[in-house]
Every structure is written in structure tokens, then in C-alpha cells.
Specification:
five-stranded mixed β-sheet, alpha+beta, two-stranded antiparallel ribbon, 65% helix, 11 helices
């Protein structure tokens, strides 16, 4: 019984109720002290008794409201209707007011209540004298109770929303990456297969590079972001595989500021840009592709630029917005940075330039 009751008790809420009613009790004691004991029309000579009445009232109200707070959580957990809850609280407010009416007649004897009254008549008189104040006090403390549970529910919903959004982003990123990786692996395995008999040492090197990439993919599988330094290490093995496939027809140069090595970016982002440049750069007129990678930081903004000398974008580009690689990159950046990034793919003097700007926080 106690174990089942314990799950409905909220210690932090009880602390708030204690703090609130302690303040109210101190104000009420000051009022009683002046009007009943110290003021010009005082009716009580018993200061210790007046203090005892205030202490008993403080204890009784807090015990009662603690029970109400526990009962309220029970109502919420059981999802009871307001048509049931409201009458119960109206009744409880009257009960609390009547119970506090016992304290003064029981502990004090003053002229405010006719001495000819019997005990229960005095209680009733005290009840009606203070009923409005007591009910308003009950409502104020009940408002604290419901505000506590309401705000906690909002925080819980916000936390759940963030968790769901993070899971959705991870799932989305994973889905987008899976559209690229199988294609790359398929081509690489075909290249290895063709080299096994003709150039076994080269095939072995490619297998080592693929093994490294797969191991790295597994290590960073649970991360959305990795450092640029780690991204460049992965890119090195990726480029080794590309060079075996394209030989002298592909040259990739890098200019990367060392100060950017610690900055984290979406995993495999640079690889995706390089892959897209190769996919659209080669053409019958562009059989030798030069790709220049530049990474720098300016005014708290990371700039990643990949320029190639391949075929330029048509006047009314199609693949720049509809290609799987570009769409994937944009969606990954949007999922991670919202409005804190800029993605451009334009014609340059030599070919096509892809630029990504990421605001650093």
C-alpha cells in the first residue's frame, strides 16, 4: 500500500507548497498579532496560545494540501474527467476550511466568539468567518499543484520531441548515406576484381583501403559529426581507391588550413562533394579531371570549396538540384544546421565550383 502510494508523492512539489504557505502563515500571524493581541481592539491576552494556533494551522494545512497534491497526481495518472475532479476539490476546500475552524476554539478563549456558544457552534462560527479566505487559499495552493504538473508535462514533451527529432535526423542521415555508399562499394569491388589477376599488389592495396574505410564507417556510425582532420584521413584512403580507378585522368589537390582541423562537420561530406564532382566532371571533352579542395575559416564561418575543370553547368541546370548527391548533401546540412549554412554550386572560370558555408557557434 505504501509502495503504491509513494509513486504519487512529489517531494519537490511539497517543498514549493511548504515555502508558499510558510510565507502566508507568517503574514497571517502578523495580522492576527496586530488585530487580536497588540492592536487597539485586541481580544486575546494569550500570545503563546496565538502562536500555537498559527503553528497548528500551518501544520494542518500543509498536511491536508500534501494529501491533495498526492490525490491530484492520482487523478492525472488515471486521466479522470474534470466533471469528477472539480466537485471533489470544491468539497475538499470546504473540508479544509472547516477543519481549520477547530483550532482557535480548541486552543484560545477570546471575546470575538460568544462564550455562551458550545464548542461546535464556535467551530461553525469560525468556519463561516474565514471560509472565503480559506477557499481562496485552497485555490491558490491548488493552482501551484496543477501548474507544477502542467509545466513538468511541457518539459517532458519538449524532451521527448527533441529525442524524436534527433532520432529522425540520425535515421534521415543514415538513409541518405546509404544511397551513396553501396554505389561506391560496388564500383570499387568491380575494380578490385579486375585487378586481382593482372595487378595483385594493387588489388591488395585497394582491399586495405576499403578495409580501412569500412572500419572507419563502423567507428563513426553513431556520430553525426566528425573532425575535419578525421574526414581528411578518410578522404586520403578514398582518393587512393579513386586513383587506382581513374589513374592519371584524376588529380586531386588540397589546401586546408591547419586551424580548421578540429572543427567538426557532417561525416563523409567532403567525400560526397568529391564524388559528385567526378560524376559530373568527366565528359567526352573533359577526360582529365583536376579537383582542387580548399578548407578555411573566415569570420567564424567555415568555408569548404571544391572546384573542378570539368564540364560546366548548363544555362538551365538540371542535375544541380535533382541529382541524388546534391540533394543528399543539402538535406544533411539542413537537418544539422537549419539556417546556419549556405550551399552554392556555380560555374567558375575553369569549370564548376561547389561551396559550403557553415556558421560556427
Amino acid at each position: 500500500m505504501l509502495k503504491s502510494l509513494k509513486k504519487y508523492i512529489e517531494p519537490r512539489l511539497l517543498k514549493y507548497l511548504v515555502l508558499f504557505y510558510t510565507f502566508i502563515a507568517l503574514v497571517d500571524f502578523s495580522r492576527s498579532f496586530y488585530y487580536l493581541y497588540q492592536g487597539p481592539g485586541k481580544v486575546v491576552d494569550d500570545l503563546p496560545g496565538l502562536m500555537l494556533v498559527s503553528a497548528f494551522d500551518w501544520l494542518l494545512v500543509l498536511l491536508f494540501m500534501g494529501s491533495v497534491a498526492t490525490l491530484t497526481k492520482y487523478f492525472l495518472v488515471k486521466n479522470m474527467s474534470w466533471r469528477t475532479i472539480i466537485p471533489i476539490h470544491v468539497m475538499l476546500s470546504a473540508v479544509q476550511s472547516y477543519l481549520t475552524g477547530f483550532i482557535s476554539p480548541l486552543l484560545l478563549d477570546y471575546d470575538l466568539i460568544n462564550s455562551d456558544y458550545n464548542f461546535f457552534e464556535k467551530v461553525t462560527h469560525t468556519f463561516f468567518f474565514n471560509v472565503t479566505t480559506n477557499i481562496l487559499l485552497y485555490c491558490a495552493m491548488l493552482l501551484i499543484v496543477y501548474s507544477y504538473f502542467y509545466l513538468r508535462q511541457i518539459r517532458s514533451q519538449e524532451l521527448e520531441k527533441k529525442v524524436l527529432e534527433n532520432n529522425l535526423i540520425k535515421l534521415k542521415l543514415k538513409t541518405l548515406e546509404n544511397q551513396l555508399n553501396p554505389h561506391f562499394l560496388f564500383n570499387t569491388l568491380n575494380s578490385i576484381s579486375s585487378l586481382i589477376k593482372r595487378e595483385p599488389d594493387t588489388a591488395q592495396d585497394m582491399i586495405a583501403d576499403v578495409s580501412y574505410l569500412l572500419r572507419k564507417f563502423l567507428e563513426i556510425d553513431s556520430q553525426n559529426l566528425i573532425s575535419i582532420q578525421e574526414e581528411l584521413e578518410i578522404l586520403e584512403h578514398y582518393v587512393n581507391i579513386l586513383k587506382q580507378r581513374f589513374q592519371e585522368d584524376l588529380i586531386i589537390t588540397q589546401r586546408v588550413e591547419k586551424s580548421t582541423h578540429h572543427i567538426k562537420i557532417p561525416r563523409l561530406l567532403i567525400q560526397s562533394i568529391i564524388e559528385n564532382s567526378i560524376k559530373h566532371g568527366f565528359s567526352p571533352k573533359n577526360k582529365k579531371l583536376l579537383i582542387d579542395l580548399t578548407i578555411e575559416e573566415k569570420e567564424n564561418t567555415l568555408i569548404i570549396s571544391v572546384e573542378n575543370n570539368g564540364k560546366k553547368l548548363p544555362k538551365y541546370p538540371i542535375y544541380s538540384d535533382s541529382g541524388i548527391g546534391i540533394i543528399n548533401m543539402k538535406e544533411r546540412l539542413q537537418a544539422l544546421y537549419q539556417d546556419r549554412y549556405k550551399f552554392d554550386i556555380t560555374n567558375s572560370n575553369h569549370g564548376v565550383r561547389t561551396e559550403i558555408y557553415i556558421e560556427l557557434t
